[in-house]
Specification:
- With 221 residues, this protein is α/β, with parallel strands linked by helices.
- 47% of the residues lie in helices and 12% in strands.
- It is globular and about 60 Å long.
- The protein starts with a helix and ends in an 8-residue tail after the last strand.
- The structure holds magnesium ion.
């Protein structure tokens, strides 16, 4: 069954969309954390790229799925690097996935309420909206940092519902992280889609328990 026939868009009033990996190419973020940060960390600590990477990946793993992970000010302190300035340095790598704008335009036309829900820090959200000009398609954008919980936790969804006023029964949510989709499902979001192909340069991973799309054109008539 195609993903299009699995999602009755006419029954959907609210569309919640993740940013990194879903709307935007996760290549930027992967390059940033797996290449640029280790490089700068190695320089700063007078060590090799390999050793820096090893050390950093342990730190990343430790904070994954927590609010710290999303907080670039935390990482600036933790790593003694200016993380926002480094992100700014590679802003040219921020790219929108194919057909995302067409999909957003279609949602606007169909008068859906469209919300961005992201674990990204508000400073990163600002940078990415400035670069991509996607902000105009959204009725609101919320970050896990504002909510006080990452999307992996049910508390995020309780706060998000209060803030945005969506109805779970009439809501579609698209994200590239399986853990987050599981939490959204548990919370009762009715329509859930996994965005496979988060990073355009690596082979897509499929979430077993969810309908997936590779490209937003699959959700368009
Ligand atoms: Mg994501």
């Amino acid at each position: 069954m195609s993903s299009r026939s699995k999602i009755p868009l006419h029954e959907i009033k609210y569309v919640l969309l993740d940013m990194d990996g879903t709307l935007l190419d996760k290549y930027f973020d992967d390059y940033f954390w797996e290449h640029l940060v280790p490089e700068k960390y190695a320089e700063k600590n007078n060590t090799t790229f390999g050793k820096a990477k090893e050390e950093l990946f342990k730190k990343y793993k430790h904070h994954e799925g927590t609010l710290n992970w999303t907080d670039i000010d935390f990482w600036s302190k933790e790593l003694n690097l200016d993380i926002p300035a480094l992100k700014e340095q590679i802003r040219h790598l921020i790219e929108i996935h194919p057909h995302v704008e067409d999909f957003l335009k279609m949602l606007k036309k169909q008068k859906k309420k469209v919300f961005l829900v992201t674990n990204a820090h508000y400073k990163v959200l600002d940078l990415k909206f400035k670069k991509t000009e996607l902000g105009k398609y959204f009725d609101a954008a919320i970050t896990s940092f504002e909510m006080g919980y990452p999307k992996e936790m049910l508390e995020f969804w309780e706060k998000a519902e209060k803030k945005l006023g969506f109805e779970r029964e009439k809501t579609l949510f698209v994200d590239d992280t399986e853990e987050i989709l599981k939490t959204a499902r548990k919370y009762g979001i009715k329509y859930i889609i996994h965005k496979a192909k988060a990073n355009s340069k690596i082979k897509p991973k499929l979430a077993k328990e969810f309908t997936h799309i590779f490209d937003f054109k699959e959700l368009m008539k």
